[in-house]
Design a protein that fits this description.
This protein is mainly alpha-helical and about 100 residues long. About 75% of the residues lie in helices and about 0% in strands.
Length: about 100
């Protein structure tokens, strides 16, 4: 059980870490301001940046929870239902 909790928390942490390193809402807000665009009727600059930050936090949380569920299904199936792990992997993300 401890392994499953740590595994899930690591997925959540790294999902937020990746978004924090790849998505720069300040740069996007500055680009909008340079191009004289409005995003969702927000004021350019800090208003757009705050809106993008809040939106991406919510989207990242939903995506990270989905990834946690997909990643832990095989573990739960193999431990709780005594299904062989190779068979339980079928219910996880597709293998490429």
């Amino acid at each position: 059980m401890l392994y499953l909790v740590i595994y899930s928390l690591m997925i959540l942490f790294f999902a937020y870490f990746w978004v924090a390193t790849q998505f720069n809402e300040l740069q996007i807000a500055d680009d909008f301001e340079k191009e004289r665009r409005l995003h969702s009727g927000r004021a350019s600059g800090a208003g757009t940046s705050d809106y993008l930050h809040k939106s991406m936090s919510r989207i990242t949380l939903a995506g990270a929870i989905f990834l946690m569920v997909i990643a832990t299904i095989p573990i739960i199936l193999s431990r709780q239902m005594s299904i062989p792990y190779d068979v339980a992997q079928f219910f996880a993300a597709p293998a490429f």
